[in-house]
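Section handout, structural biology tutorial.
Before the tutorial, make sure you can parse a SMILES string by hand: atoms, branches in parentheses, ring closures as digits. In the record below the ligand is pyridoxal-5'-phosphate, and the chain has 421 residues. In the tutorial you will relate the predicted structure tokens back to the input. Do not try to memorize them.
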Amino acid sequence: MLSTRTTTPNRPTATMPRLYLSPPHMGPDERALLLDAFDSNWIAPLGPHVDAFEAELAAVVSGDEAVPHVGAPAIVSGADHEPHGDAERRTAHATPHVAALSSGTAALHLALRLLGVSPGDRVWVSSFTFAASANAVTYLGATPVLVDSEPRTWNIDPDLVAEELPRAAQRGELPKALIAVDLYGQCADYARLQAACAPYEVPIIEDAAEALGARYHGAPAGSFGALSAFSFNGNKIITTSGGGALCGSSQELILRARALASQAREPFPHYEHREVGYNYRLSNLLAAVGRGQLRQLSSRVAARRAHFERYVTELGELPGLSWMPEPEGYFSTRWLTCLLLEPSAARATPEALRLALEAEDIEARPLWKPMHLQPAFQGCQALGGAVSERLFATGLCLPSGSAMTSVEQDRVIDVLRRHLA
Ligand SMILES: *Cc1c(COP(=O)(O)O)cnc(C)c1O
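Predicted structure of the complex:
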């Protein structure tokens, strides 16, 4: 035989294009809107598409734009930790205010600044996250305190927060804010977090960078906390190549965010600045792309959820294999399909599996390495850590892009079967 390459349908050949974890998924609307922006000559970090994108995103976060419920029911009566109606949202079904920004990280930075975080302050942050959540804290000279996850949602553990806040209060070390992250497209448990934080008046910032389109007891991701941040980076569920948004119910705060994001220019004919600002606004060209993407949000969420369901259906029974849970009352976007391999039972380690996928030109990645294990945050206080450490040690993210075909997904499933069965 001249070639060792197999050609059976289930055996991918080396000539197949690389399968990425979460590539952009563009359509004709995005192209048309981008050309419209281009032809209008609004080539600037302001313009009609920025204004429209902000209004359309606000409608999504208010819940007006219904995202279909394919999974868990919206409100589950008798659920373990049922929120008290919409009380934990900012305001029931109020349309929030939105500032379109150059990145999700910029949104987090502005959120912290608007809440008055300053040098020497502490900000509690989920340790199990992408570095941007904790990085933003350091931009203001504040110190992140890295809080472990709960196994139920993989997000910041509300019981741990409830247990540690009184101790922090006794030491005079209450945080100025708490950043909860909605990881892999699933909301944190805001009812329990709110209950823990409210007595100490610690404001919550929702890092919803990975969760646009998700719901928690019927309310959209981005509608929790004092302020919330979205990202439209190239790998997110919808993208503007790079971009972000800050969202909140306070018009005053969002107006200030827009001003700070435009170098804090005062309304004078000359350039007058009373405070130090940033260059954080979103380009009109990119906002046009974002508007096209937003129109497809519910179909993108449905596609990612369908990929997840198919992985589970095809692979669910393999020894030692389990999946990221979605508790009752939660509606995850399944931004990335995440699996866990129980070391005592699984036939392969996550790293062996990643390398096997890589050999077939399929991108897979470990789960986020917790911030308390990162050299950059070495000296930062950590509250717990065992849950996120275990997730990092035993997990893997699989290709989950909304444009992935079933033939492409077969390539992944085939490798997993060969190594885990
Ligand atoms: C992507 C991401 C960010 C940062 O967003 P950028 O737009 O890339 O700056 C923040 N937090 C989380 C959890 C993210 O996944």
